[in-house]
Fold:
Amino acid sequence: MRKVLFVLALLAVVSWGATANAAVIIDFSTGSAGSGGTITYAGGANPLVGTDIRIGALSSAGTPLNDGAYLAVKGFAAGTKNTVS
Structure:
C-alpha cells in the first residue's frame, strides 16, 4: 500500500511540473500608413537605425492577455538591442 501511495504522489508531482508554452507572435504592418522609412547600418559595433518606419497596424497572437489587432499605433522607440525607450 505504501508503494502505491508513493508512486501516486510521485506521478502527481511530475505532472504538476509539466506546462505547455507557446511562442508569442507580434506582427507590425504598415496597414493604412503606407510605405516609407529607411533602415541603415554602419557596420561593426554601430547600431541598426530605422527612421520614419510607418506602422499602421499591430496584431498579436499567443499572448496571455490581449490577443488581437490594434489599428491605432502611434509613438516612437529608440534604444539598443537591450533597451527601448
